[in-house]
Amino acid sequence: YMKSIQYALSLILMLSIIGCSKDKNIVDDTAQFELDKQLIRNYLRDNNLNADSTAEGVYYIIDYTNDTLPDKHAVISSIVVVDYKGYLLSGKVFETNFNQSFGLYQVIDGWKIGIPLFKQGEKGRLFLPSRLAYGAQSTASIPSNSPLIFEVNLIKVN
User: Fold this and answer.
1) N or C: at which end does the chain have fewer Cβ atoms within 10 angstroms?
2) Predicted model pTM
């Protein structure tokens, strides 16, 4: 009987160590990232969209360029002014904001990577895997591990 209890406790200890392993989280994160990229590629294909992508996994489309404005791109220390609409791949809008001003260093990683791809005055779309947005966190309007789409109008770069 004592050996059974020791075996059970050993098994529980081993499983809890495996369950807390950081390697498991890395594998899960990598698998989620690959899944997100595939979901974004499927969305682009299904909607007949041709997007470029970055090494970090941000997909983007520049829809409008204003050639009368200077060729000014944001950097991480820039203060930018944008209009944007964020939505899920399902099309459900979770946020719309106009004339928002913020430091690029203050935003989600997907914006830190994606906004500098736009010149001041350009409009376009960012397609972000969840790891570059809100990851496994969920909010009232964004489920965990959700790839996101943002329509962005980069009004001003300071």
Assistant:
1) N
2) 0.83
